[in-house]
Write a structure and sequence with these properties.
two-stranded antiparallel sheet; 3 helices; 60 residues; mainly alpha; globular; Arc Repressor Mutant, subunit A
Length: 60
């Protein structure tokens, strides 16, 4: 799950976006810009972290 990057997001009430959802959106052709518009709680760093996580899992 990806949480907002700010300190406010460290609370248990911070929204979470499943990693698989971000990957599916990218796979469907949705641009990072459109994902960020659709999910304003995400930051570009969150999308990058999602891709890094997926890469790490696939290398295992």
């Amino acid at each position: 799950m990806i949480r907002k990057s700010s300190k406010e997001s460290q609370s248990s009430k911070a929204p979470r976006i499943p990693v698989y959802l971000i990957l599916e959106l990218l796979d469907s052709g949705m641009s990072e810009e459109n994902i960020l518009k659709e999910y304003p709680e995400l930051k570009r760093e969150d999308i990058k972290a999602t891709l890094e996580y997926a890469s790490k899992i696939l290398r295992q």
